[in-house]
Backbone:
């Protein structure tokens, strides 16, 4: 009886430990079809204080002449000065389930030789999707969040004045019909594909009590058959599924950045029994000139002789036996026992991987 109680207690502790490090399905997976769409458009910013495109930007001249012609004003491109006008690219993102008439932010970026977009106003600019259809129209005054000023001898600049943002600067004109409420099946896409994580997600969804409604298609895809009681009320089911918690499984991996000397180890990294000795070799060379000067009124010449001093130092590192680590903490303590720097760890990990003693994927970025 006593052993049974101890066994049950261990199971409870294990369950609580796994639950403490669990993540919501909402944070590790997306619902297929619920996504943002990129929008882009070409427009003109007017009202600049002489900081717009120069005469070399022919596309700005042509765009301005074309716009004026549509408004009933016929001009020649040679007669236009565009110091106060700049050609820009306007980008934005169409949120999922965005409705006609709602507003979104837009980002305005200069594509000519304009020096500053501060104080400018974006004119009517259609924003198109990948299918070529217009989904929004942008217009309004820019906010650059910076400035640029200077003279003949120098200048000062804060942030990037050739890029600006218009808060709520675009009105959505077209909606994307997804038929989401009528779906009979949902598909979850894991951010990090993994067979074990996908199986755990499937198991926890099926605990909702709807007879194996979730099944795993591959390492990143989980299909959910919508029960009859939730058809037409799919939002309630999604709310329940997103709140479920799962412990994601990750591969053993070590990330190394040689430029900064950064080393990041995953929790599943293990090291087999291996003996390691790591010593540093430093060579220091100092040169100082030795000057030999003749006595006064002598007919000799001043002679300069270089004096070179070379010092070689080699670390007295001992051979240390590293026992197999069963946790990331033990691995870290074993490596700290060598007293090495992060950059030395890079060389040690590479040598361990070559020796087959490192049970992890080594990725150098």
Residues:
């Amino acid at each position: 009886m006593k052993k049974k109680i101890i066994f049950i207690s261990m199971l409870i502790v294990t369950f609580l430990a796994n639950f403490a490090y669990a993540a919501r399905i909402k944070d590790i997976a997306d619902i297929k079809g619920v996504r943002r769409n990129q929008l882009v458009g070409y427009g003109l910013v007017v009202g600049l204080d002489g900081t717009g495109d120069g005469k070399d930007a022919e596309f700005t001249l042509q765009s301005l002449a074309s716009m004026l012609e549509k408004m009933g004003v016929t001009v020649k491109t040679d007669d236009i000065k565009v110091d106060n006008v700049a050609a820009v690219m306007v980008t934005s993102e169409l949120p999922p389930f965005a409705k006609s008439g709602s507003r979104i932010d837009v980002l305005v970026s200069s594509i000519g030789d304009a020096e500053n977009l501060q104080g400018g106003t974006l004119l009517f600019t259609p924003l198109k999707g990948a299918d070529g259809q217009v989904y929004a129209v942008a217009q309004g005054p820019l906010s650059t969040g910076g400035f640029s000023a200077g003279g003949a001898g120098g200048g000062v600049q804060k942030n990037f004045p050739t890029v600006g943002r218009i808060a709520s600067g675009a009105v959505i004109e077209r909606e994307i019909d997804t038929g989401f409420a009528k779906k009979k099946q949902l598909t979850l896409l894991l951010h990090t594909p993994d067979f074990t994580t996908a199986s755990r997600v499937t198991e926890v969804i099926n605990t909702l009590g709807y007879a194996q409604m979730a099944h795993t298609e591959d390492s990143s895809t989980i299909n959910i058959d919508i029960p009859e009681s939730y058809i037409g009320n799919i939002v309630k089911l999604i709310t329940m599924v997103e709140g479920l918690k799962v412990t994601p499984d990750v591969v053993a991996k070590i990330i190394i950045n040689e430029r900064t000397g950064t080393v990041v180890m995953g929790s599943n990294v293990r090291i087999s029994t291996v003996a390691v000795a790591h010593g540093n070799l430093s060579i220091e060379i100092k040169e100082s000139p030795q000057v030999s000067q003749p006595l006064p009124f002598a007919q000799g010449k001043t002679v300069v002789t270089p004096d070179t001093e070379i010092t070689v130092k080699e670390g007295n590192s001992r051979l240390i036996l590293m026992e197999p680590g069963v946790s990331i903490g033990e691995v870290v303590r074993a490596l700290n026992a060598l007293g090495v720097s992060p950059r030395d760890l890079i060389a040690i990990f590479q040598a361990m991987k070559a020796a087959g003693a490192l049970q992890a994927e080594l990725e150098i970025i």
Q: What stands out?
A: Residues 37-146+158-172 form one domain. The first strand starts at residue 23 and ends at 24. The chain has three domains: 37-146+158-172, 179-246, 254-364.
